[in-house]
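For anyone still unconvinced, we reproduce a single protein record, the chain in one-letter code, the fold tokenised, and leave readers to judge:
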Amino acid sequence: MDNFKGALFDLDGVLVDTAKYHYLAWKRFAEQLGFEFTEADNERLKGVSRTRSLEIVLEVGGITLTEEEKLRLAEEKNERYLQYIRRMDEAELLPGAKEYLHKLRARGIKIALGSASKNAAFILDRVGIARLFDAIVDGTKVSRAKPDPEVFVVGCKELGLEPADCVVFEDAEAGVQAALAAGMRVVGIGRADILRAANLVVRGLDELVG
């Protein structure tokens, strides 16, 4: 896995842990509608789009809403989430994230972000690593969510590389599937039993720094 020219990173669960803020915002959303949304329920939201996340949360609560109600509540949820991430700083980077990005840049590896988050660029700036990326591909640039490979295909093109020359770093099963569908190798970040389709699985980027 050392022979590559480009590295594409998911955001949540790989570089930073904003999933906890999504969970808190969705939990409050569920409370407004009168049902409980647990951390186990929240696992279903990993790597999926904002629209699909809303659908899953409503499925958990057995709630049916009009499109107008969905839009209004989704906007309220996102504003609550934004309130959390506006307070983020470099301390919220996951172990080894910044060090590994610097290691790749020192080797001349091109780096891109491939995330469904529409707040990705803002978060990278808040935690002080935006300048380490050659390209940022997020929910404002693509329309199809993982496991569709679009986000990684676009990222690869923005780096000016071929898929075979790129490695993706992902913590979600849907993200691993998307990377493989794009013709790229994948390093899974997290649990090997969940990310077993990845070419390599590590606990976190800190394992790759040394």
